[in-house]
Amino acid sequence: MEPALAILIGVIVAASLYLMLSGNMVRFLFGLVLLSNAANLVIFVGGRLTYAAPPLVPEGLYAPVGVVANALPQALVLTAIVIGFGLLAFALVLVHRAYQVLGTVEGDDMRVAEPRADKG
Amino acid sequence: MTAVLLTAPIIISFLTAIACFLARHDRVAQRWLSLLGSIALLIASFLLAAEVIRHGPIAAAMGGWLPPFGIVLVADLFAVSMVVISAIIAVTTTIYSFGEVTDGEERFGFHTLLHSLLAGGCGAFLTGDIFNLYVWFEVMLIASFGLLILGGRKEQIDGAVKYVVLNLISTIAFLTGIGLIYGATGTLNMAELRDAIPAIENDTVVLTTAVIFLFGFGVKAALFPVFFWLPASYHTPAVVVSSLFTALMTKVGVYALIRFFTLMYDTQMPQMQTMLLIIAAFTMVVGVLGAAAQNSIRRILAFHSVSQIGYILLGLAIFTPLALVGAIFFIIHHIVVKANLFLVGGVMTRLTGSEDLAKIGGLWRRTPWLAVLFLLPALSLAGLPPFFGFWAKLVVIQASFEADAYLYGFIALFVGLLTMYSMSKIWMEGFWKAHPNPSGAAALSLSRNELALLVAPIVLLTVATTALGLFASPFFDIAVQAAAQLTETDAYVRAVLGTLP
Questions:
Q1: Each residue of B209-240: b (16+ CB within 10 Å) or e?
Q2: Which pTM does this prediction carry?
Q3: What residue ranges define each of the domains in chain A, with the CATH number in brackets?
Q4: Contact between B155 and A98 using a beta-carbon 8 Å cutoff
């Protein structure tokens, strides 16, 4: 199962890079969402996959019984999802504000901070 | 006690941030809280430094969970010197901000964001767990986003878009590297990784993750060819924010690079060392050539920041003990001098009304003290004795010559010459030549109080540069100790894990 997920991660990264290389900021944000999902999948698969064995401790015991899923990557992925969610929310509002203030979502046309040389 | 000392910088900064947020509508209370928080951070960092100088690396397991399952905070000499410098920059930033940040910006939480950023920085310097490092990076990043756009001007939004997109990509790259390392070794603890990474049989995994981390931290540290977000955004926000970013944000990336490549990865991997040397050379040259093409004070200084990071990477790439001493010296020097120069540039702009060098001038006649306060750090940046920059450059270049990396030593010298060119450009255009519009310039002045608030941190940092330069010997000994702790990592591992594995 892990090789299949690895190939899937590769496909997601390729798609996200294609979107990010477009000059359009909205497309870029979609690409960023995909890329962060790919990174989360990398962490998840790194913990190795187990079938139908959630990391739970049976009642009355102090440790899980048998082989259970690795809980640490799940915690890492949760943290990463939450952090990514906050960052993406900010990025989305920033792009919206940039559209209002600068009038465009094309990255190449945003030249206020670094004006083109011929404009002086 | 060690746990208190290690967590104090982070907790103090966060408490100050919360207090400033609660007091954000009361201008005076907020300012006092911010200043007291910065001074408390400085005292805490000095206490931590004293402890580390006495006992060597110290560590504390958070929550009582022992490594490798728990998160550890570790301080060795390198980390603690970064925390001390950050605290000094915190104090200077806070004082300068009183003279610059407007009431509206303060009400929107400038001081909260400032102290959150400092908390994230101190956390990043003191953590011993790579995923925790990612979390602190994100704390710094989101606080920096807020500081960057505070004010809402067009250039800020434009610069912020460039900054945000590239830094988010680097964040995700770093996260991917962490995932791969965890998959290959099963641990996230830096001390454990020191022995776990060389034990990975698959060399491809080691090299791939090393390059992924180099890319992620390279974007953060503004290395060639991924530094372009820095000149696009650093000149747009308030001057005090520019100064803080240049002192802190890139340095956390450089710190992470040095920590990863001294503790966990071996730069003697043949491909890695060549790659690091070439990247360092290009960073130095492209940065300084970019600066030579600019005509605005902060844009010149932003490109210079990139160039000086190249020197630090050169020290890391050469990897002899002397080269690491040079890298540490250079980081300290760069933080102090660059923060200072940005603040001086800010005062120049306030006095003359523009950042564009073609439109200003005559400051030597008008404010000779400001000219001196610019000249001293500028000469230090260019590497003239007796300032600290001379010692920093000398150690790096001598290390490169001793390691037979003659080409890179000569590149470093040549870049120093071009740095002098840019500094003299600012001097000639901003201070020496007459102002094109004298009557308009004379009309702009600052009240005595504001001027005192703006100039006090500049004087503090200039005195620091000169004092460090004149009395460099004790700091050299500390840097040698810090570099030794970076190369002989047994003390670090013993402090974290209790025993050597």
A1: bbbbbbbbbbbbbbbbebbbbbbbbbbbbbbb
A2: 0.93
A3: 2-50+68-110 (1.10.287.3510)
A4: no
